[in-house]
Amino acid sequence: MSILVVLIFISALIGSGFLIAFIWAMKNGQYDDAETPAIRMLFDDKPASKQKKQNKGNVEENTD
How far apart are CA 52 and CA 50, in angstroms? Predict the structure, then answer.
């Protein structure tokens, strides 16, 4: 029966640790922007130039 008290104490300690970590993350702005990371993968980093696209298909023509 005493192990049950120890386990309850340990679980309350771990739970309060996670609560403190969550509150700390909220105060530091961890969850300020929830929309941008979800759509960031849909956009290219840099637009590809037309010359790079043309050179990619014409590799054999550029060799001398």
Answer: 6
pLDDT along the chain (64 residues), means of 10: 95 98 91 78 70 59 52
Amino acid identity for residue 23 in this structure? I
In angstroms, the CA 37 to CA 31 distance is 11
DSSP, collapsed to helix, strand or coil, labels residue 27 as helix
- Kindly state the helix (H) or strand (E) to which residue 52 belongs, with its residue range: helix 50-57
Buried b (16+ CB within 10 A) or exposed e, 17-37: eeeeeeeeeeeeeeeeeeeee
pLDDT at 39: 82
